[in-house]
Amino acid sequence: MNKIKLENIVQKSVAHEHKYNALDLYCPECGQAVKQNAIATTYVCSGCRHIVLETDKYCRFCGGSFEGDITTEHHIAGRLSDDEFQAVKTAIENKTK
Ligand SMILES: [Zn+2]
Ligand SMILES: [Zn+2]
After folding, report:
1. Which-ligand-closest: CA of 48?
2. Quick one: residue 81, left, alpha or beta (phi over 0 = left, psi -120 to 50 = alpha)?
3. What is the whole-number distance in angstroms between the Cα of residue 42 and the centre of ligand 1?
4. CB 48 within 8 A of CB 56
5. What's the gap in Å between 10 CA and the centre of ligand 1?
6. 3-13 and 71-75 as β-strands: parallel, antiparallel, unpaired?
């Protein structure tokens, strides 16, 4: 058993002068984009896929021991290959620098 590191692209709200609703992608007042892509990292147990902490040695849900190496999975509305994910990640990082 091991830990799986999930790296997901998520939509983060950006600070904006006008009011908008949580699900809005563009400001209804000025049309500016109010969401930007960001990377969210979580860890799950490979046995039960519950969320665990990076530092956990045993799964708090199924008791499995995390002795294997951490593997990484990427999801963006379905599963991406590592190359596809890296391309998106690089684009996001360049944009937020
Ligand atoms: Zn606006
Ligand atoms: Zn588990």
Report:
1. 2
2. beta
3. 32
4. no
5. 21
6. parallel
Amino acid identity, residue 96? T
- Helix segments in 1-97, DSSP class H: 82-96
Tokens linked to 39: 């990377």
Read off the pTM: 0.61
pLDDT in tens, 11-42: 788 899 999 988 888 999 999 999 887 888 99
Distance 36 CA to ligand 2 centre (A): 32
For residues 45 and 1, the answer to whether their CB atoms sit within 8 Å is yes
- Distance of CA 92 from the midpoint of ligand 1 (Å): 22
